[in-house]
Amino acid sequence: MSENSNIFKVHFLPNDTHVEVNDNCTVLDAAHKANIYINSICGGDGICGKCKVILSTGTIDAPPTKLLSGEETEKNYILACEASVTSDLQILVPKETRLEGKKILLDQNEQHYMTWKAILEQARFKHDALVKKICLKLQPPTMDDSVADHERLYQAIMMDQNVELNVMQTGYRILKKLPEVLRENDWTVTVTLGHRGKVLEIIDVQPGDTSKINFGVAIDVGTTTVVACLLDLQTSKVVDSEAVYNTQMKYGEDYIQRIIYAIQNDALEEMQRSIVTDINKLISTLVKRNDIELEYITSVVCAGNTAMHHFLLGLDPERIRKEPYIPSANFIPPIRAIQLGIDINSRGLLYTLPSVAAYVGADITSGAAAIRLDREELPTLLIDIGTNGEVVLGNKEWMVCCSASAGPAFEGSGIKHGMRAAKGAIEIMHITKEFEVSYSTIGNVPPRGICGSGLLDCIAEMLRSGIIDRSGKFQKGIKTDKLREKDDEYEFVLVNRDETAIDNDIVISQADIANLIRSKGAIYAAVSLLIESMGLTIGDVHCVYMAGGFGNYLNVRNAITIGMLPDMPASRIKFVGNTSLTGAKMALLSEDAFETVQNIASQMTYFDLMGNQKYMEEFMSANFLPHTNLDEFPSVQEELAGNNT
Amino acid sequence: MSENSNIFKVHFLPNDTHVEVNDNCTVLDAAHKANIYINSICGGDGICGKCKVILSTGTIDAPPTKLLSGEETEKNYILACEASVTSDLQILVPKETRLEGKKILLDQNEQHYMTWKAILEQARFKHDALVKKICLKLQPPTMDDSVADHERLYQAIMMDQNVELNVMQTGYRILKKLPEVLRENDWTVTVTLGHRGKVLEIIDVQPGDTSKINFGVAIDVGTTTVVACLLDLQTSKVVDSEAVYNTQMKYGEDYIQRIIYAIQNDALEEMQRSIVTDINKLISTLVKRNDIELEYITSVVCAGNTAMHHFLLGLDPERIRKEPYIPSANFIPPIRAIQLGIDINSRGLLYTLPSVAAYVGADITSGAAAIRLDREELPTLLIDIGTNGEVVLGNKEWMVCCSASAGPAFEGSGIKHGMRAAKGAIEIMHITKEFEVSYSTIGNVPPRGICGSGLLDCIAEMLRSGIIDRSGKFQKGIKTDKLREKDDEYEFVLVNRDETAIDNDIVISQADIANLIRSKGAIYAAVSLLIESMGLTIGDVHCVYMAGGFGNYLNVRNAITIGMLPDMPASRIKFVGNTSLTGAKMALLSEDAFETVQNIASQMTYFDLMGNQKYMEEFMSANFLPHTNLDEFPSVQEELAGNNT
């Protein structure tokens, strides 16, 4: 026993992990130390109530809280972030607080394409990987042709690649080994060339022909999930994909919380290591599973929001959240991956796609390139709904963008039974006039929660079936016991406990609905503002691309019904999935695509919505289903009118 | 005593240095180990006889040699390279075998110029240092101008320097510290920019205005001497100069011997360290003497021959001496000086000027740029006489070059009393018809030997006064006891022992004369060959620039008289000193000059003289004073005819 000392042992179950902590630690701190993920949206501020754990043995010190129900308190539930350790403990982390088993859904479209060449061609990008390998057979020198080794190689590259001599760079180490490498296989060599802005760097020279072996990894560095895709750069085939939760989540669910954590705890380095470790794990899994050597990976392209790029690069993110919201850099030059500790070929390059502003990141510029917004003749919208909700409006001549502070509701955060698009998530939902709920889950397993597309369906269907009114309020007069009051709040039971995988009813509460309406309202307001700011109307918008991690399918009509998207023919709305990753893949395979992202990033005009009076007005009007002004949604007006008759 | 062991102690005097060696070591090896310089032209092959030392105590094992006179053998002189250590020894290194005190002559022209701006202007080079510092006052960001820190800096540089955004590069470390640096002095920063080919690298960013403090070092990396010149890059002033002997001399007097040594002893790394140590010593002396911090030095430009550049960079030099004589690289990209261990600012750049071929190095391209050969309308010659003797013929449209294998005779090597242009060297000599010798020495001190210009005068004057005939043979009938036979060879006493500083007569021997004639013949043959190869005659050559370390003055007329230079009005021949260093200084101060050297190097056509039949014929004809064919030297014919009457 350690009653007389300051060190306590905490035993976490079901992981069976032990950790020692000081007596001023919270249970959440102990979990961080034990590297156990505990759901925590507020980052440990005692606000979100997501970090519920069960105290099996031992004593803790915690203030009273309304975030736990009487039932929960009886069952020894505590909030990990509020509970100070005052003895040795045994802590049980319940299912809903854990991450395990929530395998992240990868883009199913992956499997439909044999190679990415077709996709590049469709997007009209030239296939010319950012880092490529070429095999060159040089003429051996003679007395009549006594060009030096280095210049002989340059000349051969020049001829092969049709570039100018003075745009090439060679590192000192390459130069040193060059003469031997050239002669080892009788003047046949494989040169690895990397684009660095206007310069083509000789990254490596190897004897013989190894040009067939060249891989790259495209990474979507999301606030919540990190997705990596392994590509064969020679054949443009997608080899494999893998995703992990961003372990930075332990520092805060959204990136603003993480920035605060980083600054208050001087933890930038630790948080950089955390994201780098995630990336290394992904790459390591991909290479092992596909029997590839790490050194064959010569390039990585990352697309993430501005804050994630700062964390990844170890750039101070403090000013991102302070007026006037200035990133250290939007355009980050390619650097050797090893400089950040990313394990690939020791001379391999890391490319980070460019951001536009503190709140419009590379995920958006990447997405805009993926859908070739820069080639559209008519005004086109790109709406990416993730933790924020960024909107781009533009065509080949101009682009405006903004970030909507929509919150992560459609990613499942802040929603009682919200969850990410993973196995067990309800992704499609239908509710009859008789309030019967039918649904399907990802993986066709008993439901664990509801992901973005399911939540969107849920709101639309509840509106149609009259469970809620246009303000989102429950119609308390409806005849069903599914609508009930619990802990002073109304909630609607979507799935009964006996059908779920979580030993609980899956419900949607009044607060959840308000959250989702605020979220969709923020997006619609941003869309309206951008359209108006360009002197256009919704009728001028030719097409809407909707991106984000909603799930496999998104009911576009329902998105219009709840007033998230403008009222227009569903045929002009396309759900395009994770465009951030798509753009990163394209850039990896095509310098042309990479440059396009750069051009898009330089071209985009950023609108700051914070403190914008017009935006606030738009937002207030959009805080209704579908909108305060029904005239903006004629088809929904018609739909609901039919409903009411 | 160590008679029973394999370890012997060797005590060197007058240094008073002790060293322990194995019994299979030579005295020369022991000297290397003790870091004592012993003159040795042949690199330890027992050929040159320059490594004479006096055995004070102990026993050695040495084969018989003709390189020591009877008198010398009596005085216990031994050849250090031939003598195996067989007991503890005491060795006295006599003055003539030592280096100390031979302070290398620096270009006296230095002092005549206040700044190098005038020189650059005269050469029509723009003043724009390879690495420059600029002070920028940025506009602080606001909500209406929320450009990121990195791009804000780029835009300011772009405006200031009139460059494109996409030709700039920033290192990761700079990026990381940028936000803090920008804000430390209220958005006033000093940016250090380095040219890297087409790219402008942000080498450093410092708070406030430090743009006034920026220094660079130009270095002539000679086979024999390494000369460094410290320049203030902001004012273009030459601050100071310093020179040391290349300590690589202990591995061989010429670079071919050093290449052999490097390969046979796997000593490339050691030899690289040796030259880097020389350079660090020079820089360290310069900064200390001028009270400058090492970090203020942001750039170094090196000009040396191809082999020296290989040694400096640690590039394998083996193929330089093997057919087809292929350098690893003629064009070496700029690298961080610290990568080679050169101590300047840790992010400072090292630029090596480009070579043309194995035997035409950066010293020549640098020289050609220094005299602006690339702007000449009419065919112009540049002759650089160092250890080899390289010749360039060209104008603004074409350039041809070759290396003459002239040997280092005019640097004093292989000449009994030859020495480099240092204090005590006879640099001007006059001989009357009565065989009276008058002379002046560098530093006006008693003579220690004869440097290049003195040797050149000596041959011309001996020819004029009839001491030698046109074949270089002593006229044994002349009435003077200064011509004498010694050790089976004739020699002419130039200075009596009592007038010298070396306790010996200063003489010139028949072998010396033959050496010098071969040397000048090789140069003249190269000149002839280049002129003929272009279908020109000597009359077409507009001007001759003669470069090299001859001394302060060079009697151009004497160079014609002995047939080293073609017969033309002396007014069209210019002695230009160390053009290798001049070009390096220009490059340091002017990116334009640096690029000019690059262009010159790419433009030059190299003629290989080895095995060239025509060259051999030309060389045979030139092995005469002034030449076999007197018609090529009408003015000398006239001069000598007047002489004979």
From TrEMBL, chains A, B:
InterPro entries in UniProt: 2Fe-2S_ferredoxin-like_sf, 2Fe-2S_ferredoxin-type, ATPase_NBD, Beta-grasp_dom_sf, Corrinoid_activation_enz, Raco-like_middle, Raco-like_middle_sf, RACo_C
CDD domains tied to this protein: fer2
Domain 2Fe-2S ferredoxin-type: 8-97
Gene3D superfamilies with a match to the protein in the record: 3.10.20.30, 3.10.20.880, Domain of unknown function (DUF4445) (3.30.420.480)
GO molecular function list: iron-sulfur cluster binding
Pfam family, one: Raco_middle
Protein name stated in the entry: Ferredoxin
Biological source species: Candidatus Scalindua japonica
